[in-house]
Fold this protein.
Amino acid sequence: MLLVAVNAFVGAMVGLERVIIPVLAGTRWGVESYVAALSFIITFGMAKVLANSVAGRLAERAGRKRLLILGWLLGIPVPLILMWAPSWAWVVAANALLGLNQGFAWTMTVVMKIDLVGPKQRGLALGINESAGYAAVSLAALLSGFWLAAGHEEWAFTAGLVIALVGLVVSLVAVHDTMDHVALEQGAAAKEASPSWGSVFQRVSWKERHLHAASQAGLVNNMNDGLAWGILPLFFLQVGMGEENTVWLLAAYPLIWGLGQLFTGGLSDRIGRRGPIAVGMILQGVSILWLLEASSWTGYAVSIVGMGIGTALVYPTLLAVISDHSEPIWRSTALGVYRLWRDGGYVVGAVLAGLLADALNPESAILWIGVLTIASGCWAGWLLRS
């Protein structure tokens, strides 16, 4: 439960800027093109990919708690920089630190939860963990959106500083490392020498089809989140939804995604991983395409609900697939590689969406990302067939 609470703090850090930064990009810092406006997400994604690529391996050597604390130390300057940023370059730099914060801190809550729970209820445990994180993303996005509408966006940055400090103190004082649990589980498992990082990278990326299926689906899933984070705030405002309706739509997505995982994580333990992943990805893709057909707040809300349910089906289940098909001794590294690919989706999605939106229009970005998501779900379903 401590790890659940800590992950809620981690999620709130990123939620505080999901609404206000895309809007303030133009109004405060004068950013005009979509690619430039999405540069903060690209930087966030690249930094998180870097943190994920090393966090899993370092956790096997230095322990989980040290990296959790490192993540919080990197997150503390973020709200201060955003509060006083004189130019867009400072915002981009702050999001590099935020990406490192999320990469180290969130990854460690996932790894430590898996260490503690054992193999039988991984989906349930990860569902609870991710639910707390994304429910906090939603609540923070909702609050910050209303603060922005009221002209008090600095309140969001102050809240971010308080959250980072509390998260650091709780992690230092109350959280214990879980390396002993890893040793216990590995002692009961088949003996295997710890493979190199490169070997694990190959297994997770393409050599083992179950691991590859999860990695490619994770990447495309976070392409969708990059779209929701960077393009949809501006899209909803452009189609006349207004600030208040836009805030509710944007906050509903991570809320449904977060709360839904309380049920979908345990569901995958009972019925298997393939169905939730394939159905969830296809549902996301169809819901994204429906954004192009909707013409009212209700229609857009239907799309957002579908995206949230689809993501809830996928998110904890993909983590469980990685855990199912890796040995305890190299599981942390495997999770780091998977999260490298998954969070690389922020970079790919932001670049693709920005280029398409600048060259054509935001609707083109929505169209192509929706089609890619459906294709990814079909491919994952085929690879996970047995």
